[in-house]
Write a structure and sequence with these properties.
- The chain has eight helices and five strands; from the N terminus they run αααββααααββαβ.
- Strand 1 and strand 2 form a beta hairpin.
- The protein folds into three domains: 47 residues, Helicase, Ruva Protein, domain 3; 92 residues, Tetrahydropterin Synthase, Chain A; 40 residues, Orthogonal Bundle (GTP Cyclohydrolase I, Chain A, domain 1), CATH 1.10.286.20.
- It has a three-stranded antiparallel beta sheet with strand order 1-2-5.
- Helix 2 packs across helix 3 and helix 6 packs across helix 7.
- Helices cover 54% and strands 16% of the residues.
Length: 201
């Protein structure tokens, strides 16, 4: 299939990839946009992993409040340079992340942050549920593994599907931003407040 300049332009608009990178992805997938986007995301994730050890000490603190002032979020998003931190794209990313946190209420940043005791408790509950459905133990364990992945998607920011586009996970949004800017980028921390929620002792 012939790859046209229009196709390359459209893929670049969707992914922020360079001209040659977009063209090569389309050629590899014979013009299949979905597969081309996946290829570019994988490359972005690989580059992000290479950059992960570079210091990201610049960035910004984003404050977001839902209309009506019942939910508020404070987020620290870091990058490597003040130049990138001042760009519209970086500010938009920070805003979207804060908006997502307000809507999706993640409790942890990443799966590794979930306490072992909480994972054990959830695993035991899920296994009991699977066994009560009459599943054999080997099948029950596979079901539990799938449901634990879903559990992480519910409570960990980086594993959650983005509220504005559920086909994209938050970690993929960050990997795309790293690929586009060429800088390491990370959510350092966040806090979400909801009016009237119980205060922890």
């Amino acid at each position: 299939m012939a790859i046209t300049a229009e196709m390359v332009k459209e893929l670049r608009g969707l992914t922020g990839a360079g001209v040659l990178e977009a063209k090569k992805a389309l050629e590899q997938t014979e013009g299949d946009f979905e597969k081309a986007i996946d290829i570019l995301r994988e490359k972005g994730a690989a580059r992000a992993a290479k950059r992960a050890d570079r210091a990201a000490k610049e960035g910004l603190i984003e404050l977001y409040a839902h209309p009506g002032g019942r939910v508020g979020v404070m987020l620290e998003l870091n990058c490597e340079s003040d130049f990138v931190a001042r760009t519209e794209g970086f500010r938009e990313l920070a805003h979207n992340l804060a908006l997502h946190i307000a809507a999706a209420a993640p409790r942890y940043l990443r799966a590794e942050d979930v306490p072992a005791a909480e994972i054990e408790r959830e695993t035991a509950v899920l296994k009991a549920q699977a066994m009560s459905e009459g599943k054999p133990e080997a099948i029950a364990e596979k079901i539990v593994a799938g449901r634990i992945t879903k559990f992480y998607e519910e409570i960990c920011l980086l594993e959650q599907p983005f509220v504005k586009d559920e086909k994209v996970k938050i970690k993929d949004m960050l990997a795309d931003a790293v690929r586009t800017t060429g800088e390491n980028m990370m959510v350092r921390r966040f806090v979400r407040y909801q009016l009237g929620e119980a205060l922890e002792d």
